[in-house]
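Model the whole thing, not chain by chain.
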Amino acid sequence: MLDPAVHAQLAAILPPAALLTTVEETRPYECDGLTMYRELPAAVAIPDNEAQVVEILQRCHAARLPVVARGAGTSLSGGAMPDKRGLLLSMAKFRRIIAVDPLARTAVVQPGVRNLAITEAAAPHGLYYAPDPSSQIACTIGGNVAENAGGVHCLKYGLTVHNVHRVRAVLMTGEVVEFGGDSLDSAGYDLLALMTGSEGLLAVITEITVKLTPRPQTAQVALAAFDDVGAAGAAVAAVIGAGIVPAGLEMMDRKATRAVEEFVHASYPLDAAAVLLVETDGTPEEVAADMAEITRVLGEAGATGIRVSKDERERLLLWSGRKAAFPAIGRITPDYYCMDGTIPRKSLAKVLRRIEELSEQYGLRCANVFHAGDGNLHPLIMYDANVADESQRAEAFGAAILELCIEVGGTITGEHGVGIEKLPQMCVQFRPLELERFLGVKAAFDAHSLLNPGKGVPTLARCAEFGKMHVHHGQLPHPELPRF
Amino acid sequence: MNANADLHLARPDARDVADLVTRLTADYGERALTSRAVRDQHSHGEGLADAGLPDVVVFPHTNEEVAAIVRLCHAARVPVIAFGVGTSLEGHVAALYGGVCIDLSQMNRVLEVNADDLDCRVQAGVLREQLNAELKGTGLFFPIDPGANATIGGMAATRASGTNAVRYGTMRENVLGLTVVTPDGRIVRTGGRARKSSAGYDLTRLFVGAEGTLGVITEIQLRLYGVPEAISAAVCQFGTLEGAVQSVILAMQHGIPVARIELLDDVQMDACIRYSKLEGFEVKPTLFFEFHGSDAGVAEQAAQMQSITAEFGGSAFEWATKPEDRTRLWKARHAAYYAAKAMFAGKEVFATDACVPISRLADCVLETKADADATGLVAPIVGHVGDGNFHLCVLFDPGDPGERARAEGLAKRISLRAIAMGGTCTGEHGVGVHKLEALQAEHGEAVDLMRTIKRALDPHNIMNPGKTVPL
């Protein structure tokens, strides 16, 4: 229930259709892509201009009301899950592409613009927006910035943080600020990088200038089969070690290829323990030279079969399996839980073997489909939520995988973010010292911790509850820092 | 926001400083120096000098020693200024309020090279050229090249870029993780070896470019690259500055992946020909190119580039494919600052840089050239124009206050012009003390936020006070 006084203030800012308070109206916002966690917000506000956002945040700040910003709700870590005490701020009406500048190769867009819509708008100029998270037909650019989204091609073209020039945002207090600029660099602290991947905890984004990339003249993909997962992992390191930067370097294990093959018939080899998809793009000369080198390296690394796309149709066919991997897994299991750890590439073989062991230990199947070139794993743990204790086992299995990632020097999230899902593992990956820096940054932007509270960065107290932090005589360091 | 008076650090109490110096000299012996010459040498970079000497210069060897020194400074509320080899240009290392200079040059070990993962970990005092020498034989290299043989720590702290940022990015893109000593003397690690992470805020990039105002960087995890199969360099000369700049813009808009493009205007070319004894070149606006890739790729890039430069009146390419010829060429480019300085004996020079979106590069460079000509000063232009970044070396007579004022006015107008065109007052040199005003013009409200962050992470304002984001 929204406090009536605050309700009246918000109703004065927004038309009735843009302020939702009944359960029927707010239900569609109860969760994001991580459907394990649900919560109804006190109200949903759907502003359509920056002035409204400023006023809404000022009112909420004065009333100390939590605010959770939301794009398309495709987040996989619970980042957009509402706070039951607070306001869900939907940015869905910020859908305008304000400008495309083909000479500067930039586009100025509002945060609710879909990732793929930017590429569509840039296409007439031979340009596109490079980061391509799998959900790009639906996910919004505002959400991409908040999560520092990646995708298949980020190995060569970078993450969101490498493809954003400027962000305009509203602080919780209602001040409008701009980070970054239109040129390569910008003076002072790199607040743009701080905003990118901050999961909606620092400010509400209202406008973004993104970098556009010239569409490569041509691209070619090789599908390589391996009879051993370790050999496939070693081949990934060999390709990168040979100085090639593929446009995409993806890996799927046997469970994944079999599920996919039944679904899309991409003619993947069913007997292979693992397959790699290695793509190169550029001018025809570059692609030909790179592909010759790639097939040579893959052959030396022990590939049992290599198929190189001969034309665009075949290239898309070979990719169709990878792109359909998640729905394909969805067809063979009632539920699955997608993980997102990143490890140094050279630990790939070791980590994949350990996941295999964990799969037996927890009695749950696990398919592996992932951005091997960046070492970004997406193990898909298959379970049935209707079977007693399988959900708990899936969660425990997932947590064990993440802790394994940290153990080999990796991170608990490559691109999906922490949200609420990975708060406990944050206490494993970071020491209190580092968490204190995070909390200090948060306090500088949002002193009362009203933006997306309870996500992204665990409080030290919460880590202590998880038993992941040693608290001596009940004394937490820096007692002045906010905790919730 | 409560701006406590004590945040505006005045000089610390002289007795506290004296006690601290005594303690440090006792702890570090010959690695804590107080001679006037050493303190003077540590008070400035290669730019114009600012007032203020450090009270003592300490040469730690380990993270723990740095942390111990910072803890003492923290307890006594004495400023801490990290120092690499002093190649900064905007007064970054000036000890405005005295304090302890931590010279990291003896922390100069390459800690690990992970060839399979294309990364390495180095101590802050490792020099750029030293790192590449140690990487020889691995088939890898570290591409960021600001010209000066700076320390990796200094390059991270100032978010250096350099001649091949157009292809490889700046330090922002190439630092994977850091070890930082916090203002209260604790050791934190940020980032790591994973290629991407969305866990927590991006503290790595917050410290990169913070110019030592948030902590002392002691170790850096860096991204490495495979040495390209083929490298070739070429020189192309133009009848007009505009032709040279327009060629760059068109090449960038076509997405030709040139590894380096450097612009030298006629004045700079004249200086370089004389200083570096370059033969076979005319005193004309000139572009230096370098292409990296496979044999076929390099040939293709060069052919595309040539068809563009020909359109704008560029000469035929003068090629340098042999490593020694390339080295000579880039040495001449890197010596541009010294070449400018050598043009007139007795003149001082200061370098300023700006960076604009590539589509505004011609406007900005040509307006700046006209502006420089109008001042009557000699001010050669040189720049990594592929990324929209260019420099001006302004020569002036230090004994002539009028000339100095004209030089400073010119530098200020360049900053404001770049900002007005959607660019920045500094593409790579940083803010230091010389560009504080420009930072405010560029970021407005966001500077307040930077200040709040500075206060949150360095509440006693002891880390390089008065720089970048002064409280």
